[in-house]
Write a structure and sequence with these properties.
This protein is mainly alpha-helical and 137 residues long. It has seven helices and no strands. The radius of gyration is 15 Å and the shape is globular.
């Protein structure tokens, strides 16, 4: 089981989707569709939602990047997040989701690694969001 959800395996999964992610980033309609599916997946998967609470922040950062509202993040980070989203909603799972509890371990591992890899950028994005809200208030 450890081999299936190892950090190295999770990084490899994310890396394997980078090319497809970069293509999706160029198409706002396709990107928005993917992000909407991720939001639904998170909402309908309590185990994933509880384990990776920052996934909605990742989604928000990708949406803001696509809308060209927040562009100070590395395109590589955005591609890694989109690759993660692709895994969560489109790819064949390392562990099928229909296996109770265990079925979501791979999703959690992939999302957790993406979170760890993008942590500084997510912190900066949160700060940007807070500043934007303060300006609007």
């Amino acid at each position: 089981m450890e081999q299936i959800v190892s950090i190295d395996k999770a990084k490899a999964v994310i890396d394997s989707g980078i090319d497809q992610a970069q293509e999706i980033i160029k198409n706002n309609e396709e990107l928005n569709e993917l992000v909407t599916k991720v939001q639904s997946t998170v909402k309908n998967t309590p185990v994933l939602g509880d384990a990776v609470a920052d996934l909605p922040v990742m989604v928000s950062m990708v949406r803001s990047y696509a809308a060209k509202e927040y562009t100070v993040v590395s395109p590589k980070v955005i591609a890694a997040l989109v690759s993660t989203f692709l895994y969560l909603v489109k790819r064949k799972d390392l562990i099928p989701d229909n296996i109770p509890i265990l079925g979501h371990l791979d999703d959690i591992a992939i999302a957790a690694v993406a979170l760890k890899l993008s942590e500084p950028e997510l912190k900066a994005f949160r700060e940007w969001q807070d500043a934007k809200k303060a300006e609007e208030a």
